[in-house]
Each structure stands twice: as C-alpha cells, then as structure tokens.
TrEMBL record:
GO molecular function list: DNA binding
Domain of life of the native organism: Bacteria
Keywords: DNA-binding
Name the record gives this protein: MmcQ/YjbR family DNA-binding protein
Species assigned in the record: Lentzea indica
Amino acid sequence: MVTVADVRAVALSLPRTTEHLIRDRVKFRVGQIVYAALSRDETVLGFGYPREEREALVASDPVKFAFPSQSDMRFQWVHASMAELDVEEMTELVIGAWTMCVPKKVIRAHLGEDYL
C-alpha cells in the first residue's frame, strides 16, 4: 500500500513541482497544471494520464484504476486506489503524469536522454 508520504517524496523530487492544499486536498503542480492529487480521505490518487490510453489502463485492472467523475472526463485524468498500488507503480504513474507537464529539456535533464 502506498502512503501520502510516498507520493509526496516522489512528487517533490521532480523539478518545478510545488505542493498545494486546495479544498482539503493535497495537489502537486507544475506551474498552474495539476498532475497528481489525493482525495480528501487520502485513499485515491488522481494523476494525469493520456486520454487515448486511459480506457485500456482502467480495463487492465478495474479494482486498482477508475475513471474520474463524468464532469472530469474532459481532462487527461485517471484515479488509482492507494491500497492497490505499490511504491514502484505509483512512482511510474506520478513521473509519467509529471512528464506531461514539463518541457522535454527538463525531462532529459532529470531523467536522462533514454527516458524520452
């Protein structure tokens, strides 16, 4: 099971990330773009994910992954149960969401040329 401290450690290690408490929810942003957020009860991790790939992700493990609310379907967003994630998988998802928000040069500088 992943904890809030695990998510925070990964997110805050990424360049340009800031943490904010908005309406009792912890959110991680690059500039004005939120790329990861925790539910109020800290049981669900929301994260940026390519819109065209999210149906396959949710179908791959519907216990672990879920679509956002209908009003949020317009965003590139998916939810994951914190209880079902391990630290390695959460790290991959958070970094993937972060890469959707930063310039490629920042990704290369932080993760290396091979990541792209």
